[in-house]
Amino acid sequence: MSRGRTPPQTAAAIRRRGFLLVLSSPSGAGKTTITQRLVERDPTLSRSVSVTTRPARPGETDGADYVFIDRARFDAMVAAGELLEHAVVFGHCYGTPRRPIDDAIAAGRDVVADVDWQGTQLLTENLRSDLVTVFILPPDMATLEARLKTRAQDSAAVVAARMAKSAEEMSHWSEYDYVVVNRDLADSVAEVEAIVTAERLRRTRQNGLAEFVNRLRGG
């Protein structure tokens, strides 16, 4: 290399900022399953673990599916500003811890979370351009009810309550960046993966891109 020449600029100089991918849907439409499949298929995508005051369901693991805490601890986290969003859903509290999300985004890592529409509204206020939102719709109401009954995690009364609330939940679809109709799980996962790929290439997330292009143009 000639003395005094600037070293060639490479694509490694571009550092991408991460984002939080949020999936919302009425209960039973598939947001949790799609979230799990995304993380299984993409090792660079991590799952946000929410805190909740509800009891663990069969097969759920504390610290992996949710962090199960009591109401006093939940209220203390809210008071301390430790949650990016929180909401009460069917009598139980849910919230997204702030620090793991902030740290991941700053380090250029992407995180996926399944959050209801109320929580998504708060995340939109707190994260703004670092947030990507996807609403998952069922193909029809009969399929939604069948999925709720098939998973056998709730009583008939709870299933009825979830079905009654689903119309209200679906009314918020237009507040989201993307909408996916979950007719087939594999297709829906592929569609959300395409969204992740596109968002990773978004110009505004690529720090140092302008300098890289200027170096290219200057030879």
Keywords:
five-stranded parallel sheet, Rossmann fold, globular, 219 residues, 42% helix, alpha/beta
Could you describe the 3D structure shown?
With 219 residues, the chain is α/β, with parallel strands linked by helices. α1 (31-41) crosses α7. The protein contains eight helices and eleven strands. The longest helix is centred in the C-terminal third of the chain and has 16 residues, at 185-200. The chain has helices at 31-41, 71-79, 98-106, 117-127, 141-150, 156-170, 185-200, 209-218, and strands at residues 15-16, 20-24, 45-47, 51-52, 67-68, 83-89, 92-97, 110-114, 131-137, 178-181, 206-207.
Uncertain stretches of 5 or more adjacent residues: none
CATH superfamily: P-loop containing nucleotide triphosphate hydrolases
Helix content: 40-55%
The helix/strand series, from N terminus to C terminus, equals EEHEEEHEEHEHEHHEHEH
Rounded Rg:
20 Å
What is the top-level CATH class? Alpha Beta
How would you characterize the largest beta sheet?
5 strands, parallel
Question: Helix/strand-derived class?
Answer: alpha/beta
Taking the alpha carbons of the first and last residues, their distance comes to: 15 Å
* CATH fold-level topology: Rossmann fold
Q: What's the helix count?
A: 8
Strand order of the largest sheet: 3-8-2-9-10
Number of domains as seen in the coordinates: 1
